Amino acid sequence: MEKYDVIIIGAACAGLSAGLYAGRRALKTLILSKDIGGQAAITAEIENYPGAGTVAGSVLMLKFKEQAEKVGAKIILDGVTKIEKAGNEFVVFTEKEQYGALSIILAFGLSHRQLNVPGEKELTGRGVAYCATCDGPLFRGKTVAVVGGGNSAFDAADYLGELCEKVYLLVRTDKFRADQVLIDSVNARKNVEIITNVQIKEIVGAKRVEKIILNSGSELVLQGVFIEAGYEPQTKFLGDLVQLDDRGQIVVDMEARTSEPGIFAAGDVTNVIFKQAVISAGEGAKAALSAARYVQGVRGGEEKPDWKRRAEIGKLENRRN
Do 2 and 101 contact (CB within 8 A), yes or no? Predict the structure, then answer.
């Protein structure tokens, strides 16, 4: 079983940023994730990441990945199934392997929230989708519904308004949680109809989505349903290893520490209130710095400052070239 100073679970803004900072602290670093970039990678355009201007999410996440790898972080695409404490260390079990670590950074973000209505599971991939950016082009010229009242829902409705003949935006309440610029953009589209105080009761279709039944009893004939009702943490595999709040989010302090010494957390999976790419990146950096301090404490050594680590990286690059 190969051992690392820190194992980071998740490879999006928080995880890759943590990998960058852990590498700069000369930690032997492993990043485990099922994918690269998470939610950010499937965002068509990111406009609010400082210094990046308007950039495709996939492009920004590739830059994150390249920077983390450049300082020595190793990335393996594999899903984590369990974490166990073994003395002062941890064992991370994946679908394929197991690894040892002195410290852990949990940075695996959030997963799409489901409606849990009849027909949703059966028709997923056959008209039911959770990513407008990914699947929107498949519904060009068709009628679709978007479910949700936040930024992701309004962004999806705006994007689909360019592709589809008709878009219904279904909001559970009469209040919107999206940025005003997105609300204004959707309101300006004549083919997007916002329906408030409504919920889907059932999604109907023999082989593909044919219509939806609303809680009012009325029906909408359409070919696609994009569920953009937010996200939820998939933290059940952690058991009682770390403290969770009533929403299943990992509770952290100002230094990204969890209730378990040696385990840190960052990004959308934590109880940090705002869920933004730039905040996740900053929290990832903070978690890595805290983990570095913890590892040095376990070893009884002195933490290396950034400037010393940069010199080491420079020597390594010169040897490679």
Answer: no
pTM of the predicted model as reported, rounded to 2 decimal places: 0.75
Domain co-membership, 218 together with 237: no
Do 250 and 288 lie in a common domain?
A: yes
Active-site entry in 134, 184, 253, 306: 134
Residues 238 and 275 both lie in one domain? yes
Q: Which amino acid is at 47?
A: E
Question: 137 and 90, same structural domain?
Answer: no
On whether both 244 and 198 belong to a single domain, the answer is no
**Is 164 among the catalytic positions?**
no
Domain of 82 in residue numbering reads as: 3-110+233-320
Count of H-run helices and E-run strands, the chain: 8, 19
Average pLDDT, the chain: 91
Tens of pLDDT, residue by residue over 211-242, are: 999 999 999 999 999 999 888 888 989 999 99
13 is catalytic: no
Residue 250: is its pLDDT beyond 90? Answer: yes
> Does residue 190 lie in a domain region?
yes
Q: Which of 135, 155, 158, 268 is catalytic?
A: 135
The reply to whether 263 and 180 lie within a common domain is no
310: confidence class by pLDDT, cuts 50, 70, 90: very low
- Is position 134 annotated as part of the catalytic site? yes
Regarding whether 73 and 19 lie in a shared domain, the answer is yes
Mean local confidence (pLDDT), 65-89: 96
Total domains in the fold of the chain? 2
3-class SS of residue 83: strand
Which of 74, 65, 77 shows the shortest CA–CA distance to 13? Answer: 65
Residue 213 lies in a domain: yes
Q: For residue 211, give the 3-state DSSP assignment.
A: strand
Q: Tens digit of pLDDT for each residue in 97-156?
A: 999 999 999 999 888 888 999 999 999 989 999 888 778 999 999 999 999 999 989 999
Domain of 310: which CATH number? Answer: 3.50.50.60
DSSP string, 245-297: -TTSPBP--TTSB-SSTTEEE-STTBS-S---HHHHHHHHHHHHHHHHHHHHH
